[in-house]
Amino acid sequence: xxxxxxxxxxxxxxxxxxxCGSGCIEPIDEVGTAAMFARLAAIAGLVLSFPVVTVxxxxxxxxxxxxxxxxxxxxxxxxxxxxxxxxxxxxxxxAEGFADTGTAVMIVAGHIGWADVVTLAAVQxxxxxxxxxxxxxxxxxxxxxxxRVIPIERARLRELPGVVGQVADRLSAGNRIVVFPEGTTWCxxxxxxxxxxxxxxxxxxxxxxQPVRLRYLNSDGMPCTVPAFVGNDSFADSAKxxxxxxxxxxxxxxxxxxxxxxxxxDLARRCETAVRGTDRSRHGVADTQWIEAGNTRVQDPSMGxxxxxxxxxxxxxx
Length: 318
Description:
With 318 residues, the chain is α/β, with parallel strands linked by helices. The chain has one domain. It has eight helices and seven strands. Strands 1-7-6-2-5-3-4 form a seven-stranded mixed β-sheet, with helices on both faces. The longest helix is centred in the first third of the chain and has 24 residues, at 33-56.
């Protein structure tokens, strides 16, 4: 496998960066052009009808309806959903999703692409911390607004504490919030380190964290990189690739809950271990504490102690 992403540029040295690029994408079976446009029309119909149906549905039934919509959208993307629950009954996890209604939980997962939002919502309705420009994307932007996405502008480091504060407020109110602690997308066969900053919200609110193993498989059960949003991908390029795909499986594995403890860095390490297990990144990124910042040695501003690394960096997309 050749990874051919170009060198990245950074607004500041904290920004996580992924070496994944177009060379990571391996094609799979595809549907025809007519079928692709039929899928697109179906998704547009779901997005347009979602607000109306949500308002018309009693609050006690809205989560079920919203989950059905997300699963229908996933089906329109040509994906089947597979959920594996490794939690024990003593942990109090919901039999129908991440947590019972009104029970706060922070969900953490590796980040592959925009399809992650649909896949996780198909398990149970959730809110997300997501890239700020997502609300401007066609179709998916409307869903982002309806699901109360917390936008994060990665180029503006000073906004990070405010975003962490918003996550803490949502958790205190009993919400389910998804965060992608890698801070950028990877191809699904490689992955980055989980940054500790967002975990502070769980520590501050003593909220349990739900580690999730998220991956996409082809019809043969092998890892599939088609949904990856990496390198120089535009949303249109990525959407077309996904809509043309055939036989994909979106797999969600719910690992045992992690208690927040008092140290966000320890919590980040525990969650990364839960999500990755013994897997190793195809790009060889094994360090869970350091930031990547070109060939310079820099301090991660989200950490209280001086922790530095020297490592080459390539293109990023989030």
